[in-house]
Amino acid sequence: MALNAPATARSLIFAADGYTLSGPSTLTLTNAGSGGAGANAIAVTYANTMAIISCPLTSGQTVTKLDEGALRLEGNTAITGNLNIGGGSVILAGNSVTNVSGNTRVGISYTPSGTQLPTFNGTLTIQDNAVLNTQYIYMGENINSEFPGMVAIVNQTGGTVTTSGVDGEGNGIRIGHWPSETSTYNLSGGTLTIGNNAELALAIDGTGIFNLSGTGVLNTRTFVVNARTGNASGSGTWNVTGGTANIGAGGIINESTGTAYAVNLGGGIIRATAGFSSTLPMTLTGINGDITFDTNGFNVSLTGNLSGAGGLTKTGAGILTLSGTESYTGTTTVNGGILNATGATNFPRDVVVGPGGSLSPATGAFRQLNVGRDYTQNGTLLIELGGPTQGVLYDWLNVTNLATLGGTMDINITTPFPVTAGMYFDILVAAAGITNDLSGVGFNVHGADLGYSLWAFIVPMGGSAEALRLVVAPEPTTMALLGLGALCLWRRQRPPARR
Fold first, then answer.
1. What 8-state DSSP symbol labels residue 372?
2. Residues 19-63 pLDDT 10s
3. Is 342 domain-assigned?
4. Is the pLDDT at 368 greater than 90, yes or no?
5. Using an 8 Å Cβ cutoff, are 182 and 150 in contact?
6. Does residue 309 lie in a domain region?
7. Which of 145, 198, 238, 253 has the smallest number of Cβ neighbours within 10 A?
8. Does residue 477 belong to any structural domain of this protein?
9. Domain encompassing residue 382
10. Which one-letter DSSP state was computed for residue 390?
11. Which of 244, 265, 286 is at the close of a domain?
12. Is residue 361 part of a domain?
């Protein structure tokens, strides 16, 4: 049906499949009149049927989608009020633009006036280049918990969704709002932006799930995995298997106590748009690859335990600090910036430091950092040296298997301390040996002046074990000649007998 002149309707009821309202003129929904499906209501009666509206659609009040069929909006829609999806699905497609000045509610049991809806499960799909602008998004409006098992779903495969409001609890989107329901937001393409520094909040009182995959992009200041203390009826889960989550200063947090939540990280990217910290335990799943933390020039701190079969890749300028008890069994890769391992952090499996990346056993505290299998370095190892006691007054790396060394050893002498010729510092020990000599390794020494030079050797430690050892040896004439200010001189030498 082509709409060639402006029209007004109280409600629309599509009782069969295949109806399309098209044309250049605007259809306006209104409160006027009586009967039908109710004021400002659109009903697509039967499951597995679809109605399409491609003409402009407006309403000065809340619009409610009813019944089990699908409504596809392909034109421009302007709603002054809320958009309620209380049954079936609404599909935003093509180049459509939908502006909702109030809230978009997916899965709702009552209208704002208190009228119970005949259907309540709801699905919203955003695809192609469609645009949705709304104040808030609320999912799982199982008001008074009268419909156990309510399901609310958002599938975003493309387009742009933007929220602009901040509700009374600081949320821009609530996924799993009321008890006894399950809400799921699937972001596999397009962009979801939580504006105005509002939060993306899971599990306010129900069960909330956010799945990030494919090429989806999330922009939010704060990701809250469980937003209600005492939520006994649900939990919050964030699954990442692809896509990019841009996280701001609010970080990844849990606002509840003693409630259930899970953060499962696979082959996607978490990128900082400001410095943030998180205390949450996280599972590195390895699904579709290892999670990448891009600090993007900021400092990010993860104090919760990291577990699972996957690995972790650090990219971007800035510092990622890990201080939990890590038990994940994938590879740790540093391709940019600094990975700072403090507290109880050790790496159960392989560690690879690529060009442009730096690994630090600690900052401001000397310690032993354990690598559970192989260590491969083409970037920088940051070692702090403050005295002669290994792991107490200077950092060292303890490698369970093989070490392959390249790149740079950066030695920061944090404070002057008494040294004598022959004193040594084993800054790296590999139980199965070091696979190469020091010809491809650079040394950068800075900080306090010890008045002696340091020579670098690879030395046998018994069996197959070998150490990278720094040995104190005075050579003032040579140092003065090289302009080193009596700081340090390096020699690359391997003792003749290793095994």
1. S
2. 999 999 999 999 876 666 678 889 998 999 999 999 999 999 999
3. no
4. yes
5. yes
6. no
7. 145
8. yes
9. 350-491
10. B
11. 265
12. yes
